[in-house]
Amino acid sequence: RGGRGFNNTPRPTECDVQTNHTRLEVVDPGLELEWVFYKVDIQNARLVEKKGEDGEPMMDEGGRPVREFIPSEIRALAGEDTKRRFFEGPLPWRIMKKLVDDERAKDANFALDYDGAELAVAPSNRSIPRDGESYQVIVKRDCEEDDPDKERIKNRRFFVTLTRTHAIPISMVYGAIRGEHVDSAFKQQLETAINLLLNSTSIQSGMIRLSSKLIFPLDRQKRMYLDQSRGGGGRYGGRGGGGRGAVGIPEASNGTKFLLQGMTQKVMLSNGPEDGGGRHQDFPAALVLTDTVVEWADREYHEGRDPQRVRLLQETHGRFTIAGVEVSDITRGPITDGRMRNDVEDAIFKLRLNVFYEIANINQEREDRWRAEGVSEVEIRARRRRIVKDKEMVNDRDDGSRGHGCRIIWSADNSNEYSFEVDGQETTIYQHFQNRNGITLKYKYAPAIHLGRKVGWIPIEFVFQHFKKTRGANNTDMVREVLGHYDRVSGTNLINDVMSKRGLLSNEMNAAQGLALYNLRISADPMTFKTNVLRQPQIEFGQNNVKHANNGSFDLRGVTFARPATMDSFVAIDFSGDRRSCREYINGLLKKSADHGVEIPTTVKDIPLDAITEVYHGNHGDALDHALEVVQNAIDRAKDVYVNDSTNTFRQNRTRFKTQCCDTQCCDRHGLVLDCLVLPPFEEGGTAGLLIDYARCKDYRYSHRIITADGKFNARLMTRIRETNTLIDPFDIRYLNNRCQAIYNGEWIDVTFDSECFECDDGSVFGLDEATFTYIQSSEEFSINVPSIIMVFLPDDTKALYDKIKLVTNLCGGYQTQAAVASKYGSQRNKDQYLSNIAIKINTKLSKTADKASSWLTDIDWIGKEPTLIIGIGTASGMGNSSETVVTASTLLDNHGMRLTHSCFVQGKSNDIADHVMGHIVEGSWCLFWNDKGETPKRIIIYREGLSDGNFSQADNEIRCVRGVLNELTKKEGIYLPITYIVCQTQHNIRMVPASSGDGVRGNVWSGTVLDNSITQLGTKMTGLSIDEEVKHNFLSDHKDKMQPFADVDDSSDDFLLTAQGGLKGTSKPIFYRVRLNENKVWGPKGATPLTKDNLKGFTYQMSFAYGSATKATREVPLIKYAKKLSNQVLRVLKLLPTTMDGKRYTLREPDELERVKSYYIEVTYLNGEVICKNDNIVTCLSGISKHLAA
């Protein structure tokens, strides 16, 4: 079974699961206590001499000036953007932690907790701030208070004012935690406060903020990995130490980065009895969700007895690296290679940086004075040190600087790149450090980087890493180590690991004492729940072969596809340099595809493989630069072979190349896809003609203009066979397995070819030798689908080359591609299985409206009973300063979930979908549904990915937009379509594992395990939207013949957690389906059934088996998986724009106010700037005849 093994355990209908939830409890409900809330206001401050009424400085008893804090108006925090950036950084945490430490030094009973924003809370029975009380706080500007270099880092002063806003008595907290009904505003306020306490008490206990995550202190990290390597008393397993043999913290990039463990915590509160009865009587209304996390971080110090700072520039046995990038020998000269320079600059830009160097002397006279004052030599040496912390490489903004606009110069001793004037002399950085600081740089040809106006240009040999979260931790080794960690603590071990970490934080690190101040405690045991295990659908292949899934997966042994596609043509590209393996792979793939039923015409098989294989002969490192040329050569090669019949294969077989075409000249027929036979040119260099199947358009009945002795005629090419005098249309004849066949009574039968002739418009017939002729339909007037697919054989899985090929093939005509990696193919133990898995992708990609190809069919309940429009929407946004968000919609075209079409738009960066984009998606999906099915939908379901609890209100706005578009589309019929809107949360921290070995498989829950009560009633309540009751009543009354209300509607929440996939490794993570609106539960088409929670759970799970790229149930519904996949693919492609291909330039444009399209759009122009088209649907712009994206 594909290496998965067969599971003989009977599949249950119910099972018990454990989750990473623990109870939150009030310790003493009768305690007199209030939680007091404060608004936090932080102002920059400065220390100035205090002046008297006469304006003169005030003096103390010792005659020294009296100093005081005052707000710094110049540096005051102003504006929402400035405040937001300030509170997102680490400084507010340091300020408030220092405030608490300072006050506790004065009064050990002082208490205050804070969570990085403008809110703080304190328990009323402790020493707490008075209303409006201000505090003077001095913190280190660029480092923590316990930093070993803190004495060399400047201080920064702040005023902190705490204004009391309100208080909550513990009795109200107790009531909410017990499950008593509270309004949503109070519930949200209480959740915010408890989450604040969870984070604040963790940090007060020693946890470290690493970006948005909390990690355990470094001294605890070693112990955790040690416990894991020993098995941790049953909690852990597997190796440790990042593969270095010894137990330790996993490392990467020569020990400059390490993998740290942490945890997240979040409270979940019930809305009380109004949740609809889903919560059990004995189920707690307040839970804490705890999850374990790992993050790669940049090291600041190497491990050892004498920890050394991590240098950016490292030399090992004469080889040099800068920020992990291997560079040329910088003792002989500067870096000159352009690609190497880009890699170095990108690597440094991802880091936060420290500077450390020691000057030869400060000033001899000053040092002598220090010695006379008794300053030690150790202290004097410390004063010579120059230390700067937590900076980043930025552009030099000094207009008068030679380095203006640059952030890196490639030699510290190159006056042409950068120099400045000192005492009338032009001085390089190398000379400046030598003359001013008495330092001779070891690497004069090494780069220098700019660290801001106050720091300036610093030689790279004095630059070190600062501790922070690693940016771009996605290389193969780092990803493998993260996955390895989660494999080691997977399944039931994961819950044990979470509980172990919670115990460490609560007990050994004393976080429980911090919560106890607020009369709260968290239980030590995970929650256990009873779940349902859903029925797996039957998987139907061709010839009535039905497969039964084995815990979410099935195999392809001995099956033909349910609806095989036709591979009319293909071309291969070999980037691997391994010609033999490429031939073996292509021939094996063709055979395996044919075994599964993919129709490959005999003539296509007879074409010599070398004739349709474009081989790249250059270096692998240069393949990216030559991708366009290679792909265009391959396409030209395919057209020459298939359209021009350059190998004479079609002539020798007495057949024609059959494919599809689209009329690009006639506006009335533009976009109409037609079957055609290609008629080769009369002579070399001539133009091919087309014989078109005219069933869909009579205008294409005739293929030739002929001249005979009887006159001029329009004629159609026909075929004579010896078995009958009836002329056979060429579309009804084929050459298969060396036999000529024709259609007779709907079946293909063997016949004997005789000759070809012309049938004229008056019914007369002429032989080919009785006429001279020309083609009516020229291949130049049509877009011809050739090649149907491009098979690419890559040397490795480098993403850059793959992305470039996708861009090139899309822009060169929307060609489908199927890539394989030579190294992966070569390492396969079972190549047949590997080729079968690729064959299903090819079958999916070749699927067209005409053949409706599907590798298998699944029995999906409910959706096939009435015409149902189902749309999945996924998004992808660029990192950092990227300004675009890609929004993709997948629209279901059949009742088996296998056939999809897509639309894709680019908008300004946002989690919210813009109204015009949502409008385009709904209207476009509606039209595609109608074009494919010939009927309009009667109900609509939307799966929306990418929304978190904090922005569910945006879903309401999107629903209103959908409703508005549907009203316009159904205006004539006056139908009010019911909408179901489901938010698919993939990024959450809920884990479900078997409560015992009998409740799952290999440490994971069963495929199809669904939890639809208890914890799904917690958190943000899905109130949903619906049309006004009066409107609904009037509407249903007016349309009794079309719509009906459903009786006994259950008004409880329809949310559910579903683990669709069968886990083999790691921990199966469920999808949280949050139903924001379900009108299909309330009313629907006449004769329809309501969309109950059971129906929704059932077909959502069944659709998970309809992923045309893999023989298993996917974690999320394929509609969402495809949409996310295409969004990310387009996002990567956008980075390569603008680009020029085939005489056209493609540019991503942002519309101005006067533009017709409101989305970003791709503008296509000729090289002279003349605009060819503007298209805001990226799929339309980048696709050809076939629309399905499979992989």
Annotation keywords:
1191 residues; alpha+beta; 11-stranded mixed sheet; 8-stranded antiparallel sheet; 25 helices; 25% helix; globular; disordered C terminus
Walk me through this protein's architecture.
By secondary structure, this protein is of the alpha+beta class. The chain is built from 25 helices and 64 strands. The chain has an eleven-stranded mixed β-sheet with strand order 50-49-48-51-52-59-58-56-27-1-53. A hairpin with a 4-residue loop joins β11 and β12. α13 packs across α19 and α20 crosses α21. The N terminus and C terminus are likely disordered.
Number of continuous helical runs: 25
Q: Report helical residue fraction.
A: 25-40%
Largest sheet: 11 strands, mixed
Radius of gyration: 35 Å
User: Which segments are poorly predicted (pLDDT under 50) over 5 or more consecutive residues?
Assistant: 1-6, 232-246, 273-281, 1019-1028, 1182-1191
Question: What is the typical, i.e. mean, pLDDT?
Answer: 86
Number of strands: 64
Termini, distance in Å?
22 Å
**Strand fraction band?**
25-35%
Secondary-structure blueprint of this entry?
Elements: E1 14-19, E2 21-26, E3 34-49, E4 67-71, H1 80-88, H2 91-106, E5 113-114, E6 119-123, E7 133-140, E8 155-169, H3 170-178, H4 184-204, E9 208-210, E10 213-215, H5 218-230, E11 251-252, E12 257-269, E13 286-298, E14 313-316, E15 319-322, E16 325-327, H6 338-349, E17 353-358, H7 364-372, H8 377-384, E18 385-391, E19 408-409, E20 420-422, E21 425-427, H9 429-437, E22 448-450, E23 457-459, E24 463-465, E25 468-469, H10 476-488, H11 492-508, H12 511-516, E26 520-522, E27 527-533, E28 538-540, E29 546-548, E30 570-574, H13 579-595, H14 602-606, E31 613-615, H15 623-643, H16 649-652, E32 657-663, E33 673-679, E34 689-692, E35 704-708, E36 711-721, E37 724-728, E38 733-736, E39 739-744, E40 747-750, E41 753-760, E42 765-767, E43 772-775, E44 782-784, E45 789-794, H17 799-811, E46 816-821, H18 822-826, H19 831-845, E47 857-858, E48 868-877, E49 884-892, E50 900-908, H20 915-933, E51 939-945, H21 952-969, E52 979-985, E53 992-994, E54 1000-1001, E55 1004-1005, E56 1009-1011, H22 1029-1038, E57 1043-1045, E58 1056-1059, ...
Parallel strand pairs: 30-31, 30-45, 45-46, 48-51, 51-52
Antiparallel strand pairs: 1-27, 1-53, 2-13, 2-26, 3-4, 3-6, 3-8, 5-6, 7-8, 9-10, 10-12, 11-12, 12-13, 13-25, 14-15, 15-16, 17-18, 17-24, 19-22, 20-21, 22-23, 27-56, 28-29, 28-47, 32-33, 32-44, 33-34, 35-36, 35-43, 36-37, 36-41, 38-39, 39-40, 41-42, 48-49, 49-50, 52-59, 54-55, 56-58, 57-60, ...
